[in-house]
Specification:
The complex is a heterodimer of chains A (391) and B (209).
Chain A (H helix, E strand, L loop, with lengths): L12 E5 L3 E2 L5 E2 L2 E8 L9 E5 L26 E2 L4 E2 L4 E5 L14 E2 L4 E2 L9 H14 L7 E5 L1 H12 L6 E5 L7 H15 L17 H15 L2 H7 L18 H16 L2 H13 L10 H4 L6 E7 L7 H13 L4 E6 L13 H17 L15
Parallel strand pairs in A: 5-8, 5-11, 6-7, 11-12, 12-13, 13-14
Antiparallel strand pairs in A: 1-4, 2-3, 4-8, 9-10
Chain B lengths: L2 H7 L1 H6 L3 H8 L6 E5 L5 H10 L2 E6 L2 H9 L3 E4 L14 E7 L8 H11 E9 L4 H8 L24 H10 L2 E10 L2 E2 L4 H4 L2 E8 L1
Parallel strand pairs in B: 1-2, 1-4, 2-3, 4-5
Antiparallel strand pairs in B: 5-8, 6-7, 6-8
The chains are: A alpha/beta (391), B alpha/beta (209).
Chain lengths: 391, 209
């Protein structure tokens, strides 16, 4: 097998779109920016492009590092790079920050060109369908008519699925990982608690906290802590922390006593320091609203009728937030439409987070499926020397 | 299928030349049929049917390694446990549902055969004939049978519901299953005389009555 390595130093770019975008809620974004990263080289017939859709807290920085001393690589760096399952010597990979995000693309924290003030509460509530429509604009901008694949986990998987419905001719393969055709009531309930934590933070100011020079840190922190609990399985938390004490012995206090508390507080603090609360509200709402079957009386098979892509659907046994049963619903609807689909139920202990882990079997699945795409599309290796050329 | 895909998979027809049962199954599958192969292993049979009969199909496989091998063979493969039933498949949504040399290893035999005939307009079932004379001879000799079609020792066998051709005929009669065709093989050759004694592999084409 080929040696795998990091994609190396990468840099984000921003594309500006002047044509108005009509959103699902009826509002119109007169113009918008999308921040994105690209890795690998687009081949001559532009047939090797793969779009990565991010989940709740992700962004365009999917692989590589910004500087040699950068502590963290992109969020899916274990998957993407030369010789990795998504091989950048073969594929041209696009990572994009979704509309409403807080990492460069137009979002609540960016400046509304009309008012020259941060959008804040006036930034529209964005849907999965809107994201896909805006991503298609980015594909146009990059000169890509058809994507070899769209890949996403969780909320990203919903976007991959929606691509096949919004633009059936423009996506050949969809990799829908740890996802669902809509959220269950329990799943939405977690989102509601997270939003309530943010909205009831005294420093939220109805979403216009930028003008007050504050951020609803406490709310965002609690929202993230709650999220983290649901991304792990009971077993995974047990294995990782158990009942281990941070310092020991017990102090009979409300300070950090257990390792688990320390972890949640650390994750919450870190997130609250770098993420925008208004974005978090909109990402969770996009999750809640996504329900392609709704317009078809709840009939997912009818909803998936427009799809033409080939599918790989993957779920993880210990994922209770996006359980295998939800992935099987997608598979059933794809089967009902006679679409090519493979479905893997990966035995994993990590819960929902498993989709980001480099589990060997899981990565073998993605590698094999992407290899299949490569063979089908006759994609040949792009000389490494040209790799940077695209940046 | 595209030319490139054909080139990639041309090897299936080659490999399967050695598998007489594949060729016979293919005779029972109409060109272009929609096929579901339960317990598809590495997808060799589906690959063969795709290359020879241009079928559109899916495999069902529980085991991780087999599942991955099937994916690598460019088979649509659904990872699930047959024993949980086929509720993920609509009634009468397949032309043919195949259970190739797996019947003897399933727990809920009645349920699975019933499900096959619910999901498929026809079913193809193949299994090693426990009544084959070599098996009988080994039993008379006081030992559990081990043969080409029953390659396991008693302590490591996945087989839990071994049956004879007579048993399966009776099963079909008592379960409202119509036998459309039956073929019995030994060493790849069709057996006409005393099939339950002389045959090592049984193949059935079935339909709901």
């Amino acid at each position: 097998m080929q040696e795998s390595s990091s994609i190396g130093i990468v840099a984000p770019q921003t594309a500006h779109f002047d044509a108005p975008l009509t959103l699902k809620n009826g509002e119109v974004l007169p113009q918008f920016d999308l921040t994105y990263e690209i890795y690998g080289t687009l081949n001559a017939d532009k047939s090797n492009a793969v779009l990565i859709c991010h989940a709740l807290s992700g962004n365009h920085h999917v692989a590589g590092k910004y500087t040699e001393t950068d502590k963290n690589a992109g969020w899916w760096d274990n998957l993407i790079g030369p010789g990795k399952p998504l091989d950048t010597n073969r594929f041209f990979v696009i990572g994009v920050n979704n509309l409403g995000g807080c990492h460069g693309s137009s979002g609540p924290a960016s400046i509304d060109p009309l008012t020259r003030q941060p959008w804040g509460s006036t930034f529209p509530v964005i849907t999965v369908e809107d994201w896909v429509a805006s991503q298609a604009r980015l594909a146009d901008y990059l000169g890509i008519q058809q994507l070899a694949a769209v890949i996403g986990g969780s909320l990203g998987g919903m976007q991959a699925l929606q691509w096949t419905l919004s633009f059936p001719e423009r996506v050949q393969h969809a990799l829908v990982i740890a996802s669902a055709p809509n959220l269950t009531a329990q799943n939405m309930a977690f989102n509601e608690v997270a939003r309530q934590a943010i909205i009831t933070d005294p420093e939220f100011h109805g979403g216009d906290y930028y003008a007050h020079g504050v951020v609803p840190r406490r709310g965002l922190r609690i929202a993230r802590m709650l999220g983290h609990i649901t991304y792990l399985s009971d077993d995974a938390m047990g294995m990782k922390f158990g009942r281990k004490l941070r310092h020991g012995p017990i102090k009979y206090s409300f300070d950090v006593e257990f390792e688990m508390e320390s972890y949640l507080r650390y994750q919450g603090d870190k997130f609250a320091g770098e993420f925008d609360a208004n974005t978090y509200l909109r990402m969770t709402r996009a999750l809640d609203y996504y329900d392609p079957a709704l317009e078809h009386g709840g009939d997912l098979s009818a909803a998936l009728k427009p799809a033409k892509a080939d599918f790989l659907v993957v779920s993880f046994t210990s994922d209770w937030r996006f359980s295998p049963a939800r992935s099987r619903e997608i598979v059933k609807a794809l089967l009902d439409n006679n679409l090519s689909v493979s479905y893997a139920e990966v035995t994993a202990a990590h819960g929902h987070d498993a989709f980001l882990m480099p589990d060997p079997h899981y990565h073998s699945i993605l590698r094999a499926y992407l290899k299949k795409i490569e063979l089908r599309k006759n994609i040949s290796a792009v000389p490494i020397i040209e790799r940077r050329g695209a940046l | 299928m595209t030319k490139i895909a054909k080139t990639i998979h041309a090897s299936f027809a080659e490999k399967a030349k050695l598998r007489r049962d594949f060729a016979l199954i293919a005779n029972w599958v109409k060109p272009g049929a929609k096929v579901l192969d339960l317990g598809c292993g590495d997808g060799a049979l589906l690959g063969y049917l795709r290359d020879t009969q241009d079928v559109f199909g899916y495999g069902v496989e529980k085991d991780d390694d087999n599942w991955l091998a099937a994916l690598k063979n460019d088979i649509n493969v659904i990872q699930m446990d047959l024993e949980a039933g086929l509720s993920g498949f609509e009634a009468q949504s397949f032309d043919v549902v195949i259970l190739s040399q797996t019947l003897q290893a399933v727990q809920n035999t009645e349920e699975i055969v019933h499900e096959m005939l619910r999901v498929g307009r026809e079913a193809i079932v193949t299994f090693p004939n426990f009544g084959y004379w070599r098996h009988r001879a080994q039993l008379i000799n006081g030992q559990m049978p081990v043969s080409k079609n029953l390659p396991y020792q008693w302590y490591d066998t996945p087989n839990v519901h071994l049956c004879t051709i007579n048993d399966f005929d009776q099963f079909c009669a008592s379960h409202q299953i119509k036998i459309l065709q039956r073929l019995v093989l030994t060493d790849e050759k069709p057996i006409k005389l005393l099939p339950n004694l002389m045959g090592s592999l049984a193949m059935y084409r079935l339909q709901s009555r």
